[in-house]
Amino acid sequence: MIDMPEGLCYLEAMRSGTTRPSTKQREGKRYYPTPALEKGLDILELFAGSPEGMTISEVARRLNRTMSEIFRMLLCLEQRGYLAQSANKERYHLTLRLFRLAQEHPPTKRMVTEALPIMHWLAHELRQSCHLGVLDGGHVVILAQVDSPQSTGFYVKVGSKVDLMHAATGHVILAYQNEDACERAIEEWALETRKKKPADLDSHLAKIRVRGYERRASYEVAGIINISFPVLNSQGNAVAGLTVPYVKRIEDTVSILQVIATLRTASRQISEAMGATPQAETLMAAKGTVKQSLAKTKK
What we know:
Elements: H1 6-15, H2 23-26, H3 35-48, H4 56-63, H5 67-79, E1 83-85, E2 92-94, H6 97-104, H7 106-126, E3 130-136, E4 139-146, E5 161-163, H8 168-175, H9 179-193, H10 201-211, E6 214-217, E7 225-232, E8 238-246, H11 256-273, H12 278-298
Antiparallel strand pairs: 1-2, 3-4, 3-8, 4-5, 6-7, 7-8
Helix pairs in contact: 4-5, 7-11, 8-10, 10-12
């Protein structure tokens, strides 16, 4: 393989129609353009944000491509099962193949397998629903969910995507990431949403680390209080968030304090199954305390 200078790589990418440089290129690392692959990924990412589907001409216009090249790509993606046509054959939409592939990824599949029995116990104990979410770019994706055994309640569907900054699950995962991983996730969110990082986010995440969990009213549904604990790996970093969207029912004897205590037990059990040690959460809390102290000193 010819070792092409990075500047030439970028020019070649521009000539070949690459829509944007990768994260690695932005970080100053060597970048080799792959136009066909990037074109296919651009199409998948475009459909991911268009649940109503799109026509060939709409895709071509949005990606600034010709109808013929988009037609060939859509045909290939349809044959591979990533896209499907509507009943009238006019529009394409994304299938669940990508979601199924993500679930088949060994770490993810193992986590869901370990978590589900504990989540069923949690839902039975609290008579509330619960869900397990992970970071995906600027969003939280729900990997697993268990309904409340009660006839009434609130739940979030498996496969749902929620804005990172509008999710208790997202906040608790960010709080228990190392500094570099946290900043990368926030940068991806900013790029996707074209919004600025909330001014109070750092102090808020530090408070979560000290407290050990997130508790806040739902951004989307009145009357719901989301309580979320981190699921940690062997390095003490969050790989997911376990959340109960608490609904107060009339004559319900389960209090928020009981939810917090039981949810803490469940999240620790899943964390231990993922290789976390009992000291991991304590260490992250200590880091949060140090960061808060440094922030106050600077002020």
